[in-house]
């Protein structure tokens, strides 16, 4: 087994971004909206804050109570949409049950969509728009895979996810690199049996140890997007220990997809800031 070190790759990208930011007279701005007091959300927001400050991005956090209404949050989004000091806006997920994340994400100006899941930006990316970029999560996953094999032409990739919103842009990004992709949304036991034939497996189902070495070919690349917290600590969707006697390359949890997603989120903010300056 080989561990794919997402933290090391993310640190390299953050150093490159810090150099870009230092080369300019003004700084990018990122606003994050945090609703409620979800422990995992607070951890992720703090990771983004530290990474943003390291790079030199101005970080703005807007907190809302668990019972916040659409009106409360929409008012802040509308204000941030017009604030020239803010280049990127992110709504930290998950949200309390009374709030529709898709409606609030769509409220963000698509030109300030920090994580890349605004419906207008997804539509542009899926339509092969040359100026469109993949969501930060997708870019991070693709970079992890390419760190193991730079040529994806003809490789087979399986995506085990709970959401087509995530699966569609990831499939598009992999196909642009020449991979042949099969998506298993809400994978069944029969679907899991098919995974042993794939060169690349990406799993994001939110179930601890959903997959093990018995499901995966001996030399595959496995990207574990899962993040599950229980009394034993944090774990992914893959039982990493089961791969010790294999040639599989696998991302750890934590230290794999998470830091890469944060790094590419901040890359998107830096890119948007530079584009905004050019348009002035």
UniProtKB/TrEMBL annotation:
<keyword id="KW-0378">Hydrolase</keyword>
<dbReference type="GO" id="GO:0005829">
    <property type="term" value="C:cytosol"/>
</dbReference>
<keyword id="KW-0658">Purine biosynthesis</keyword>
<dbReference type="GO" id="GO:0035999">
    <property type="term" value="P:tetrahydrofolate interconversion"/>
</dbReference>
<comment type="pathway">
    <text>One-carbon metabolism; tetrahydrofolate interconversion.</text>
</comment>
<dbReference type="InterPro" id="IPR020630">
    <property type="entry name" value="THF_DH/CycHdrlase_cat_dom"/>
</dbReference>
<keyword id="KW-0521">NADP</keyword>
<comment type="function">
    <text>Catalyzes the oxidation of 5,10-methylenetetrahydrofolate to 5,10-methenyltetrahydrofolate and then the hydrolysis of 5,10-methenyltetrahydrofolate to 10-formyltetrahydrofolate.</text>
</comment>
<dbReference type="InterPro" id="IPR020631">
    <property type="entry name" value="THF_DH/CycHdrlase_NAD-bd_dom"/>
</dbReference>
<dbReference type="GO" id="GO:0000105">
    <property type="term" value="P:L-histidine biosynthetic process"/>
</dbReference>
<dbReference type="GO" id="GO:0009086">
    <property type="term" value="P:methionine biosynthetic process"/>
</dbReference>
<dbReference type="InterPro" id="IPR036291">
    <property type="entry name" value="NAD(P)-bd_dom_sf"/>
</dbReference>
<dbReference type="InterPro" id="IPR046346">
    <property type="entry name" value="Aminoacid_DH-like_N_sf"/>
</dbReference>
<keyword id="KW-0028">Amino-acid biosynthesis</keyword>
<keyword id="KW-0368">Histidine biosynthesis</keyword>
<comment type="similarity">
    <text>Belongs to the tetrahydrofolate dehydrogenase/cyclohydrolase family.</text>
</comment>
<dbReference type="InterPro" id="IPR000672">
    <property type="entry name" value="THF_DH/CycHdrlase"/>
</dbReference>
<keyword id="KW-0486">Methionine biosynthesis</keyword>
<dbReference type="Pfam" id="PF00763">
    <property type="entry name" value="THF_DHG_CYH"/>
</dbReference>
<keyword id="KW-0560">Oxidoreductase</keyword>
<dbReference type="GO" id="GO:0004488">
    <property type="term" value="F:methylenetetrahydrofolate dehydrogenase (NADP+) activity"/>
</dbReference>
<dbReference type="GO" id="GO:0006164">
    <property type="term" value="P:purine nucleotide biosynthetic process"/>
</dbReference>
<dbReference type="Pfam" id="PF02882">
    <property type="entry name" value="THF_DHG_CYH_C"/>
</dbReference>
<keyword id="KW-0554">One-carbon metabolism</keyword>
<dbReference type="InterPro" id="IPR020867">
    <property type="entry name" value="THF_DH/CycHdrlase_CS"/>
</dbReference>
<protein>
    <recommendedName>
        <fullName>Bifunctional protein FolD</fullName>
        <ecNumber>1.5.1.5</ecNumber>
        <ecNumber>3.5.4.9</ecNumber>
    </recommendedName>
</protein>
<feature type="domain" description="Tetrahydrofolate dehydrogenase/cyclohydrolase NAD(P)-binding">
    <location>
        <begin position="136"/>
        <end position="275"/>
    </location>
</feature>
<feature type="domain" description="Tetrahydrofolate dehydrogenase/cyclohydrolase catalytic">
    <location>
        <begin position="4"/>
        <end position="115"/>
    </location>
</feature>
<keyword id="KW-0511">Multifunctional enzyme</keyword>
<dbReference type="GO" id="GO:0004477">
    <property type="term" value="F:methenyltetrahydrofolate cyclohydrolase activity"/>
</dbReference>
<comment type="subunit">
    <text>Homodimer.</text>
</comment>
């Amino acid at each position: 087994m080989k561990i794919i070190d997402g933290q090391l790759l993310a640190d390299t990208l953050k150093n490159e971004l810090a150099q870009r930011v230092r080369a300019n007279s003004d700084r990018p701005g990122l606003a994050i909206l945090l609703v409620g007091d979800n422990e995992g959300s607070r951890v992720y927001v703090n990771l983004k804050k530290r990474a943003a400050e390291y790079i030199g991005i101005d970080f703005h956090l807007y907190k809302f109570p668990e019972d916040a209404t659409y009106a409360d949050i929409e008012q802040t989004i509308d204000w941030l949409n017009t604030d020239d000091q803010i280049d990127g806006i992110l709504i930290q997920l998950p949200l309390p049950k009374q709030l529709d994340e898709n409606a609030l994400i769509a409220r963000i100006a698509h030109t300030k969509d920090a994580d890349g899941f605004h419906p207008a930006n997804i539509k542009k990316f899926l339509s092969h728009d040359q100026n469109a970029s993949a969501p930060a999560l997708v870019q991070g996953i693709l970079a992890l895979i390419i760190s193991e094999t730079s040529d994806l032409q003809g490789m087979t990739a399986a995506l085990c996810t709970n959401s087509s919103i995530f699966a569609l842009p990831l499939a598009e990004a992999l196909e642009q690199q020449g991979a042949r992709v099969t998506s298993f949304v809400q994978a069944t036991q029969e679907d899991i049996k098919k995974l042993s034939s794939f060169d690349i497996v990406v799993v994001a189902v939110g179930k601890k140890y959903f997959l093990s070495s018995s499901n995966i070919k001996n030399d595959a690349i496995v990207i574990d997007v899962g993040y599950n917290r229980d009394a034993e600590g944090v774990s992914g969707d893959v039982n990493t220990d089961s791969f010790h006697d294999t040639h599989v390359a696998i991302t750890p949890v934590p230290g794999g997809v998470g830091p890469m997603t944060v790094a590419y989120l901040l890359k998107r903010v830096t890119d948007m800031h530079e584009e905004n300056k050019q348009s002035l």
